[in-house]
From TrEMBL:
Taxonomic classification: Bacteria, Pseudomonadati, Bacteroidota, Chitinophagia, Chitinophagales
PANTHER family: RNA M5U METHYLTRANSFERASE (PTHR11061), TRNA (URACIL(54)-C(5))-METHYLTRANSFERASE (PTHR11061:SF30)
Protein name per its UniProtKB record: 23S rRNA (Uracil-5-)-methyltransferase RumA
UniProt record similarity statement: Belongs to the class I-like SAM-binding methyltransferase superfamily. RNA M5U methyltransferase family.
Residues in coiled coil: none
Originating species: Niastella yeongjuensis
Length: 470
């Protein structure tokens, strides 16, 4: 009979931060990525992976704490995986994020770089999000303290409304107060949960796929408009009307209330049809003087005010004079292209998701912008030589790809078109660095500006300006 190996514990002094928000140290010359620690901590690490040159582990015991630590402001910190850097001062978070951009561009990009500009931080480091999605579950995550207190007694699983536990797909943390979004988000969430419990409404069973209440999606715009979309496992009009009337009475700030019937095994709603119970079915958000119509399935940057700052940086780096044809690749709902449109002759946007392109056309019409056109399809399929010939050779290319970065075929097409200027907006500096290395064949990086969109997380945006060599 094989005995189970005991976890390997090692005492280490944490030296730095690495990518993905994990602390960094070394054991016998091997790099160790540590979860739950910050630089300056001295901890016992329980190794979960041990490769030849690197390992992964979790801080189990703290011998001493870093002098940089601060007290987290959220009661769910350490359990909820949403804001892992709350124990660091925001100034330190910005320092580590800026370092990550620098290291990625140098280590992966391997191109000549200008001085990297100081990171642009957020004015608001809490309640900065405009959208949150909560999950209903009949499998509440039990804290270790609850289990220890119960000892041998059986603990009844309780219903929960909150966020999934990291790496546990069927367990949900019951969130009382979330600091990521301004009110009335917590009032909405807590009102629905209390009413559901009092009236014995069934919370969804994620493992066996049954139950009525599934997900709750809340959007709050800077205009003051509030949109709520409740997703149900099946239709029950009588109970739904009772729930919604109670919610509207208790939280009068809701301007649009929708519902979506989702009988599928996954929670995505993009192939479903939300229906309005109250209000116009959408909200209006603003970026500078522009208005954007946001429906229940629309994509929009989740930090509105910092998105405005990100787009201002993008517009500045595009160096527009009013005579340029600008291609906005991976354009989403057209927000960047429309934002820079008053300084361009023509905007051509391309995006894979048809619904996003529909929103882009609507947003252009809403703002009376007639020199912007949007096209649906995979960017590498749409952006052919014939497409560029038809709509005009690009003077400026703005690209804002997903975390995976640009497809190599698109990089080759940009090199082929030889647009004089490229502005690369990235949510993943590692894949951006890879693409900059490919673009180095014809382009030089002339400006780099990190922008923080998500305080208390390791995520970072970076904007790079590239100019055609020679």
């Amino acid at each position: 009979m094989n005995k189970k190996k005991k976890p390997v514990l090692q005492q280490v002094a944490v030296e730095d931060y690495a990518a993905e928000g994990k602390a960094l140290s070394k054991i016998d010359g091997k790099v160790i990525f540590i979860e739950g620690a910050v630089p300056g901590d001295v901890v016992d690490v329980q190794l979960s992976k041990s490769k030849k040159e690197w390992g992964e582990g979790k801080a189990i015991h703290f011998h001493s704490l870093s002098p940089d630590r601060v007290t987290p402001f959220c009661e769910h910190f350490g359990v909820c995986g949403g804001c892992k850097w709350q124990m660091l001062p925001y100034e330190k978070q910005l320092q580590y994020k800026e370092n990550e951009v620098t290291q990625n561009l140098k280590r992966i990009g391997k191109v000549q770089l200008p001085p990297i500009q100081p990171i642009i931080g957020c004015t608001e480091t809490a309640r900065y999000r405009n959208k949150l999605e909560f999950t209903f579950s009949n499998r509440r995550y039990l804290l270790p303290s609850e289990i220890a207190a119960a000892k041998e007694a059986t603990i009844d699983q309780e219903n929960a409304l909150g966020f999934h536990v990291p790496r546990l797909f069927d367990k949900v943390i019951d969130i009382n107060t979330c600091h990521l979004m301004a009110e009335p988000v917590n009032a909405i969430k807590n009102t629905i949960r209390e009413y559901a419990k009092e009236n014995n409404l069934t919370f969804y069973d994620i493992r066996f796929h049954h139950g009525w209440l599934r997900t709750l999606i809340v959007r709050v715009a800077t205009t003051g408009e509030v949109m709520v979309n409740v997703c149900f496992g099946y239709e029950d009009e009588k109970e739904r009307v009772r729930l919604f009337d109670h919610l509207l009475k208790q939280v009068p700030g809701i301007t649009t209330l929708l519902y979506t019937i989702n009988p599928k095994k996954n929670d995505t709603i993009y192939d479903l049809e939300p229906k309005a119970y109250f209000g116009k079915g959408y909200i209006i958000e603003t970026l500078e003087k522009l208005q954007f119509k946001i429906g229940p399935k629309s994509f929009f940057q989740t930090n509105t005010r910092q998105a405005e700052r990100l787009y201002q940086v993008t517009r500045d780096l595009a160096c527009l004079t009013g005579n340029e044809t600008v291609y906005d690749l991976y354009c989403g709902t057209g927000s960047i292209g429309l934002f820079v449109s008053d300084k361009a002759k023509k905007i051509i946007g391309v995006e894979t998701v048809q619904e996003a392109i529909t929103d882009a056309w609507e947003n252009a019409a809403l703002n009376h912008i007639e020199h912007a056109k949007f096209f649906a399809g995979d960017v590498i399929d749409v952006c052919t030589s014939e497409f560029f010939e038809l709509h005009g050779k690009p003077d400026v290319v703005i690209t804002d790809p997903p975390r995976a970065g640009m497809h190599e075929k698109l990089v080759r097409k940009i090199l082929e078109t030889e647009a004089p200027l490229v502005v690369y907006v990235s949510c993943n500096p590692a894949t951006q660095a890879r693409d900059l290395n490919l673009l180095d064949e014809k382009y030089e990086v002339t400006y780099v500006q990190p922008v923080d969109m998500f305080p208390h997380t390791h995520h970072i945006e970076n904007v790079a300006q590239l100019k055609l060599k020679g």
